[in-house]
UniProtKB/TrEMBL annotation:
Regions crossing the membrane: 29-48, 94-118, 130-150, 227-248, 284-308
Protein name: ABC transporter permease subunit
Organism, as annotated: Paenibacillus sepulcri
Occurrences of domain ABC transmembrane type-1 (ranges): 90-305
Pfam families referenced in this protein's UniProt entry, alphabetically: BPD_transp_1
Length: 318
């Protein structure tokens, strides 16, 4: 009898929940209609192409297609592991990803905290615009700017070094500088975008908290460390998880514009190698296996990071 009552209560609860959801959808139907183009985009350009990952387990032939190409199992993955240059390329990708997390990720947070302390609104908006503008430039343009700035003959950096008696340095022609150039150019280009996200999170903080802290005699630094940072910590955690998910996906165009035979030893990453082996040499199955390997690693990192984030901040992606 008790089991029947529990089953009946469960059915009533599910019916009430379903009715509430339908009522909610009827009320906000314009929002669901607006989401349809985005859903269609992800279906066509994200989910449907995932079926093409099957060629990672084939010896794909563009004339035979997926159905006609022979299956080879894990041979492409074995080839990836056994390839002599893959380990150095993977090492470059991991090191550049770590440097990006350590040096580039904190910059928007620091900039947002500094901009939030500015009290002259006109000056604050000007600085924010100047910091944000490089985000709209393509990596081709950024690469041209960096090449011009670091040029051994006409670059401003070498002109400044010459004032101190230093011989001109061909920065893009040496392995020791390429990683620094990649990270610093990324900071200059994209830090403004992250700054706006953190400023939006800071803008949602209740001003009464700062007033109460001022009454208690807290300094501006103490207000930042005790109020601002803890409140925006969930935002930091979410963006950090998204960054971790793209850990091995540093960006093809970001590296390709700076890459040359003189710096490829420390500069070549998985994305540029996939371009060279997949598109130039037409090794489609092999490079698809590499891409699938990247996706699996990214998914694992997101899952691990999400568990850690929930324990530390109480928030996660899911």
């Amino acid at each position: 009898m008790a089991g029947k009552v529990e089953s009946s209560d469960r059915m009533m609860y599910q019916f009430a929940t379903s009715g509430h959801k339908l009522k909610f959808m009827r009320k906000y139907w314009p929002l669901y209609v607006l989401s349809i183009p985005g859903i269609i985009f992800f279906l066509i350009f994200r989910y449907i192409p995932m079926f093409g990952s099957a060629i990672a387990f084939q010896e794909y032939n563009i004339f035979k297609g997926i159905k006609g190409s022979p299956w080879v199992g894990l041979d492409n993955f074995k080839r990836m592991i056994e390839y002599a240059e893959f380990v150095p390329i993977l090492k470059n990708t991991i090191l550049i990803g770590i440097y990006d997390l350590c040096f580039a990720f904190p910059v928007p947070i620091i900039l947002a905290l500094l901009l939030n302390e500015l009290r002259i609104m006109a000056y604050k908006r000007i600085v924010q615009t100047v910091v944000y503008m490089p985000h709209f430039l393509s990596w081709v343009i950024v690469g041209g700017i960096v090449v011009g700035v670091l040029s051994p003959s006409t670059g401003i950096v070498n002109h400044l070094l010459a004032l101190f008696g230093v011989e001109p340095i061909y920065f893009l022609g040496e392995n020791s500088y390429i990683r620094t150039i990649l990270i610093s150019s990324g900071i200059w280009k994209d830090s403004g975008w992250g700054t706006i996200i953190y400023l939006a999170a800071i803008a949602g903080i209740n001003p009464d908290l700062y007033e109460a802290a001022q009454v208690d005699g807290a300094s501006r630094l103490r207000q930042v460390t005790s109020i601002t940072v803890p409140i925006i910590l969930p935002t930091i955690a979410i963006l950090f998880l998204l960054q971790i998910g793209n850990f091995l996906d540093f960006g093809f165009e970001r590296v390709f514009v700076f890459l040359n035979p003189l710096n490829s030893e420390n500069g070549e990453i998985i994305d540029t190698y996939v371009y060279r082996a997949g598109l130039v040499d037409r090794q489609y199955s092999y490079t698809t296996a590499i891409g699938l390997f990247k996706s699996i690693v990214g998914l694992a990192l997101i899952m691990i990071g999400n568990i850690f984030s929930k324990k530390v901040t109480g928030n996660g992606l899911y």
